[in-house]
Structure formats: C-alpha cells, structure tokens
Amino acid sequence: MIVLKVIFVDAENVGLKPLDDINVSVLDKVLVFSNDETVKKHCELEMYHFLGGYPQNSNQADFYIIASLARLLSQMTVREISMTEIMLYSKDQSLLHAFRFQCELVGANSTFPLEEDIGDNVVNIKKSNSPEKQLLSLLHTPKTSTELQSILPLSKSDFTRVINDLIKSKRISRVPNKSKYWMRSASA
Fold this sequence. Notes:
Helix content is 50%, strand content 20%.
C-alpha cells in the first residue's frame, strides 16, 4: 500500500519536459535539482521543491541528489519507507545505478520512469560507425557533456578527444547563452 510519492527530478539532465508529465497529488513531494532560473520559476508555479545553488562542476547535481536521497531515507522509519514510492526522473546511467543502490540498501520502493529511454539510445548509438558520428547523432537537440557521456559508451579520455576533434573541425559548438550545452554547427 503506497501512500506517498517522493519524486526526484534531475533537471540538469532531463530539463523541464518531465515536470509537465508528472502526475502528483498534494501529498506527494517533488524535488527538482537544477541551477537554472527558468526551472526555478516553473517549480515555484507548480509548488515543487527547487534544490539549486550547488557548484557548477561535473556531476555536482548527481552528488546532491544522492545526498538528498540518503538524508531522506535516514530520516524515515521502516514503516514510512514501505509506504513510500521513490522515483527518479533522469537518463544518467551512473546516477540511476547509485540511486537504485541507495534504495535497495533500505528496501525502498523505487521506480525510474525514463530508464527505458536509455536502452533505446544505446542501441541506436551502436549502429553508428564512429564515435564522432555517434555524438553528432545525439545532438539533434542541445545536450550537456554530462548527458552525452552518460549515453556514449566511451572512456572519459576518448570522449574528450572526440569533443575536441569536433570543436576543431567546427562541427559542434556551445549553445549561445547556455554554455553548458552543445549543439551541432550548421556545417555538421
């Protein structure tokens, strides 16, 4: 008998779209992690709890999400945990694994509504010939380096090499006014 949902949204990874699709009651808690002002304003309108202000370095939102989950779980009784469904909206495989592990440690009911999308992306990527083509195929919409790294089956050094090669050849560039996001250049 699940009574309460606690929904974690990695808005750094998935943006605002999942927030529009979430069906919550007044009893549910929605925690949205982002440093973006647009996301913050949306959260205020929807009465979601916005968690920002963390450093802009790599994986800082992920660390904050896991720390918040661990804090929440440590404050709940066994009975409360059994009556709660904990959800994570993210496509970041590393974050999904860490989140699932924390929930399994205490026997929490956890779901990952966007997890199926990851498998679809991986299958599509394996059909591409080169890492450069794989990365370019993912940039039909702007994405952060973190998003790209979580989807691409490349080591960090290979990923960096591919990004640098695409920058030098002017096939990708930063999104104006959103320097964390990459996009295909018009010539790509």
